Amino acid sequence: MLRFIGWRLLLAIPTLLLVTLFVFALQKLLPGDPLLTLAGEERDPQVLEFLRQKYRLGDPVAVQYVAWVGGVLSGDLGMSLKTEQPVLRLIGQKLPITIELAVLSILVALAIGIPAGIIAAVRRGTASDYAANVVALSGISIPHFWLGVLLILIFAVELRWLPASGFVPITENLGANLQSMILPSIVLGTGLAATLMRHTRAAMLAVLRSDYIRTARAKGLLPPAVILKHAFRNALVPIVTLTTLLFGELIGGAVLTEQVFGIPGFGKLIVDAVFNRDYAVVQGVVLCVATGFILLNLLADVLYVLINPRLRTS
Q: What is the pLDDT of residues 14-35, one digit of tens each?
C-alpha cells in the first residue's frame, strides 16, 4: 500500500508542473498591466519601475516561472500584489471556510442521494423510482443562485429561522457557525445529491443483476442483507469516485453560492484575484486546487482497496 501511494505521489509531480506552466503562461497572455492599479492615478513611471523591480515583473517570463517554482518548493507562494500579504496566509484564511462548506454539502448529498438511489434501484419501475428520477432531474436543473435566493426568502425573510447571509467562524460560536452554513450547504448538497442518486441507482442496478446476488437470494438471505451487505458494497467503487470528484469541484467551484450567502471563502478569493490580476494569488489558488484533486484521487484509490479486498492482490 505504501509503495502504491508513493508511486502515485511521484506521478503527481509532472502533473502539477504542467498545471503551473499552463496557468503561468495563460495569465501572461492576458491584456493589461496589473501594476497600473497599484501605481495610483498619476501612474508615475518611477513608481511603475520600482514596482516592476519589486515584484520581478521585468524579468523574462522563464526567469519569473523558475523563481516562482523555486519559492513553492521552499514553501513560499509569493506575495499578493493587491494586499501585499503572503499568498500562503491568504489561502490558509479562506480555504478552511470552503472546506467546511464542502464537507457539510457532501454530507447533505450523501444523506439524500444514496438512500434515494438505492430505493430507486430496488423498486425499479415503480412510483418511487419515477419520483426519485424527477427529483434528481430537478436538482440538476435548478440553478444554485436561484435556489439560494428562494431559500433565503423562505427561511430567513419569512420564517426567520436562519440568517440570510454572513459567516461566523467556528472558533467563535459553533451554533452560529452551523446556522450560517445550513442554507448554503443545502443549496450545494441538493445539486450533488441529484448526481449521486443517479449514479447510485445505475451502479445498484448493474450489481443487482449479478449472479452472486441471485445466489444470495436463493440461500434465503433477508432483503436488507442482500441489498446493503452484498449489492451496495460492490456498487461503492463508482460512488466513491464520484464523491471525491464532487468534493474537489466544491473547493474551487462554490463561487456563486459563497457570493449569494456572503461567505468569505475560497471562491471569493479566486474571483478577486482574477479581477485584480493578482498573479501570485491566482497561481497559488490553482496550485492548491490541482493538489487537492490529486490527493482526492489518491484517496479514492486507497478506498477502492479497502472496499474491494480483491484489488489488494492485483
A: 888 888 888 777 776 666 666 6
